[in-house]
Design goal:
Length: 296
């Protein structure tokens, strides 16, 4: 139905917007907190707030915690690892770098659909995949020169790992969406993520942070709650490939915001160091990704 499609696209667009700004605020938060503390706080905050919301709405949030589906537990573990490695990618490079490299994830989602679920792979998607590879090679070469080959390879490994983990999470989320309510699944995923990430927390990070730092962490928690809440709702209305197309807008949002931030508040985060061929490669790669995940 047209109404369902519009609703799904709206939810996916909100997720894209929130994720576009996310790596920038993560980079700022890393000046005060460790990566493990940041991702643990995001999951814990999202779990606590969502539990209270569902409890207030009398939707029995404890039901999925008492009897969790196995795939839901796995989804939580995968998303926790995705958060950790994505933040490591942000920490070792820049927000835009992370946003561009993570676009490998929707391509993997399409490939996994073909390999596991025997979905049709059109020849146009093959062309898109080739275009994306060329774009990523150009972008990688530019950034290797800017950062140094060894350092940028480390960032790339983190982001590929994050992409693989997110793809697995999305597959489990899709499998469970027909049998469980979206926000109950999110609650379980947040709870599992918070438990899994406890060993990564540096508790002294929370001793005496500035008030502004707490506001930043709360924003990251709210971002998690809203972005994945909207993503879970979008899964119920539109197919994964269409969600992936919308989410591919993330890097453009991040790049634009980074340029504006360098003018408005230049001291907040270090400016991007992307050369001309890096921008060309990024645009080609993202264009190729859109072709891969788009279906006629």
């Amino acid at each position: 139905m047209k109404t369902d499609t519009i609703r799904g696209l709206t939810y996916a667009s909100i997720t894209a917007l929130l994720w576009g700004f996310l790596p920038i605020f993560m980079k700022i938060a890393l000046q005060e907190f460790s990566g493990g503390s940041i991702v643990w706080f995001r999951f814990t905050f999202a779990f606590g707030v969502l539990f209270l919301i569902l409890k207030f709405q009398k939707k029995q949030p404890e039901s999925i915690i008492i009897s969790p589906p196995g795939f839901g537990v796995l989804a939580g573990i995968l998303l926790a690892a995705n958060y950790f490695y994505f933040l490591k990618g942000v920490e070792t490079s820049t927000p835009s770098n992370a946003g561009i490299l993570i676009q490998i994830a929707p391509v993997m989602l399409v490939i996994l659909g073909v390999a596991l679920f025997k979905e049709r792979f059109h020849w146009k998607q093959g062309i898109g995949l080739a275009i994306a590879v060329v774009g990523y090679v150009l972008f990688y070469r530019d950034q290797s020169q800017q950062w140094g080959s060894e350092a940028y390879t480390e960032t790339s490994v983190y982001m590929v790992a994050a992409a693989v983990l997110w793809t697995g999470y999305m597959v489990f989320q899709k499998k469970l969406s027909s049998a469980h309510k979206a926000q109950h699944l999110n609650l379980l995923v947040y709870g599992i993520g918070a438990l899994v990430l406890i060993p990564a927390v540096i508790w002294t990070d929370f001793n005496n942070p500035h008030f502004g730092s707490w506001l930043l962490m709360i924003f990251l928690g709210v971002n998690t709650l809203l972005a994945y809440g909207c993503l879970a709702e979008a899964v119920n209305y539109i197919p994964l490939w269409l969600i992936s197309v919308v989410i591919t807008l993330n890097p453009f949002i991040t790049l634009t915001a980074m340029h504006l931030l360098s003018v408005v508040a230049p001291g907040w985060v270090a400016p991007e160091i992307i050369g001309l061929w890096g921008y060309i490669g990024a645009s080609i790669a993202i264009g190729g990704v859109v072709i891969v995940i788009r279906k006629d």
